[in-house]
Amino acid sequence: MSAIHLEHLAKRFGGFTALKAMDLRIEDGEFMALLGPSGCGKSTTMNMIAGMETPSEGRILFGDRDMAGVPMARRGVGFVFQNYAIFTHMTVRQNLSYGLRMTGRPKSEVERRTLDMAEFLQLTPLLDRRADRLSVNILQRVAIGRSAVMEPAIFLLDEPLSNVDAAFRAVMRTELKQLQRQFRQTMVYVTHDQLEAMTMADRIAVMDHGVLQQVGRPIDVYNDPANTFVAAFIGSPGMNLLRGRPVRTDRGLAVDLGVLGVTPPLAAPQARAAEQARGEVIYGFRPEQTTLAREGIASPVSFVERIGARSIVHLGDGPAVFKAVFENDVPAAVGDVVRVLPHADAVRLFDAQTGKAL
Ligand code: ATP
C-alpha cells in the first residue's frame, strides 16, 4: 500500500515551529502538490516523509505501516531534489542504471528498464554522453529518470523544476504528469509555483507559516478558497480582495466598498453569507471573472500590462486597488475611468477579522 497518512505531524527546530500539527491523507496513486511560499514548511514535511528528518510529534503511515524509526533506504521512496544529485563523471546510461545495478538486478532487466526510461524522457540519443557535458535542463531530466527507473511506489519531488528555464519547465510539467500516469506512483510534489501545482496535481495542499490552509482539487481551491491567503496565492494574478461592509440596497444585499462605491447586488449564496457577517467583510473576485459593464465598480486605470493574449488592467489607488484581466484589445488606457463588473456567481466573501471564507 502506498497511501501516505500524516497524523498530527509537527516539526520544531529548537524553539521554532516549522510545521504545526498537520493531518493529511494522500491516496494510493495520487499526485499531491505541497504548495506555499518560501519557508512555509513544505520541504520539512517532505523530508519527514522521506525519513531524512524525525518528526517532533505525530505519525507518518505508509498504508497502515508506521514509519517511525524506518530509515530512508528502507522506505521505498524515490526522491528528486531541486539540485540534480547525479554523478557528473558517469554517462547518462550509467546514471540511469545506477540504482538498478546497485540492487543486483539481472543485466537484461537493467538494460531494458534503462532504455525504456531513456526513451520515455527523450534521452536515448544522449545515453553515452557524460553528465558533465549536459545542460542544466537535461541534467534534471536525468535526475528524474534515475529515480523513476526504480519504479518507487512513492515518488517525492522537491522543487525539481525551479532551476530549469521557463520553456523547458512547461515541457517537464507534461512529462512528469505522464510519468505518474504510466507508473501510478503516489507522487508528492513540493513547489512554490501555483501554476505547477494547478497543472499537475490531483489535489493541492496549500501551506503558510507551517500551517495547512486548505486541501482540495485545483479547481476547488481556485473556485472556493478557504481563506484570503489561499485566494491571493492561487491564480495569476491572485483574487482581488477589497474591504467593505454589507448594505441593503433596493436591488438586494450588496457590499459598500467605501471610495469604490457600492457593489452590484450579491448572488443568493453570497447574500446569505453576508447576512451572517458581523461587521466588515472582504469582497473577493478573480480578475479574469469580470466584464466591463455600466453597473460595474467604477475606478481609474493606473496601469495596463499587455501580455500577448490578455491584458491585465490595474485599477484604483491606495488600499482600494484591484486588477481585471481582459482580451488584449480591451479599450482601456491609463487615466480612463472604467466600470468593472465581477461575475456575480464567482464573487466570494471572507470574514475581515479572520480571513476565513463566509
Ligand atoms: P523553501 O522553498 O524556501 O525551502 P519551505 O516551505 O520548503 O521553503 P522549509 O525548508 O520546510 O520551508 O523551512 C521551514 C522553516 O523551517 C524555515 O523558516 C526554515 O528556515 C526552517 N528550518 C528548516 N530546516 C531547519 C533546520 N535544520 N534548523 C532550523 N530551522 C530550519
Task: Compile the SSE list and pairings.
Blueprint: E1 4-13, E2 16-26, E3 31-35, H1 42-50, E4 57-62, E5 65-66, E6 77-80, H2 92-102, H3 107-120, H4 136-148, E7 154-158, H5 166-183, E8 186-191, H6 194-200, E9 203-208, E10 211-216, H7 218-223, H8 228-233, E11 240-249, E12 252-256, H9 268-276, E13 281-285, E14 290-306, E15 310-315, E16 322-327, E17 337-342, E18 348-351
Parallel strand pairs: 3-8, 3-9, 6-7, 7-8
Antiparallel strand pairs: 1-2, 1-4, 4-5, 9-10, 11-12, 11-13, 13-18, 14-15, 14-17, 15-16
Helix pairs in contact: 2-3, 2-4
Account of the protein in words:
The radius of gyration is 24 Å and the shape is elongated. The protein is built from nine helices and 18 strands. The chain has helices at residues 42-50, 92-102, 107-120, 136-148, 166-183, 194-200, 218-223, 228-233, 268-276; strands spanning 4-13, 16-26, 31-35, 57-62, 65-66, 77-80, 154-158, 186-191, 203-208, 211-216, 240-249, 252-256, 281-285, 290-306, 310-315, 322-327, 337-342, 348-351. A hairpin with a 2-residue loop joins strand 4 and strand 5 (65-66). It has two domains: 4-232, 3-Layer(aba) Sandwich (Rossmann fold), CATH 3.40.50.300; 236-351, Nucleic acid-binding proteins (OB fold (Dihydrolipoamide Acetyltransferase, E2P)), CATH 2.40.50.140. Helix content is 26%, strand content 34%. With 358 residues, the chain is α+β, with helices and mostly antiparallel strands. It starts with a strand and ends in a 7-residue tail after the last strand. It has a six-stranded mixed beta sheet, with helices on both faces. A four-stranded antiparallel beta sheet has the order 2-1-4-5, covered by helices on one side. A four-stranded antiparallel beta sheet has the order 12-11-13-18. The model has no long low-confidence stretch (mean pLDDT 92). Adenosine-5'-triphosphate binds at residues 13, 16, 18, 36, 38-44, 192.
